[in-house]
Write the structure tokens for this entry.
Amino acid sequence: MRLLIVEDEKRLAVSLARGLTAEGYAVDVVHDGREGLHRATESTYDLVILDIMLPGMNGYRVCAALRAAGHDVPILMLTAKDGEYDEAEGLDTGADDYLTKPFSYVVLVARVKALLRRRGRGAGARPVRVHGDLKVDTAARRVLLGGHEVALTAKEFAVLEQLVVRAGEVVSKADILEHVWDFAYEGDPNIVEVYVSALRRKLRAGLIRTVRGAGYRLEAGR
């Protein structure tokens, strides 16, 4: 899942990005309200963490603009302010949740996960994907093959999740990079091959087929 953090306190933004990346999310960070609005409009995100006090355009206006344009991405607003009026204004502009600084990182992660679960239920998403003898529980982040649990790293799980959600389709390397890593990733794109190879070793060699020049496809299980 891809998250966008719009926060002008750079140290806080970097800290949140590192933590959420460790949780298995792909995270983009911008420090300006106008850039945040542009990025949220032009790219697809599963959730936006949006500060209120921003240069260029404040969080209230960014949120209102996104909703006016028909974007229903979950928005978690952050602010150093503390008051009922501020919370009401944030929610009135279309925010889904509100967190006052300073906050516990554990609480933020819990709020993020709750919003993503809520969005999944609203969109009719299936938290458990079954593909032959492969079962992927996207909510609990568990993988079972032939009834036996397989331990995967956060990145391995994220790559597999992209393939199982689009089972039967060819998923390009670029799509996997975009959803599992992040918008600003400038490393070797062959990193995808490394994780696909790891998945083949841990699962089954023939489960993920390479479609030359196009990407990867999850093959039918047993």
Q: What stands out?
A: Residues 105-122 form the longest helix (18 residues).
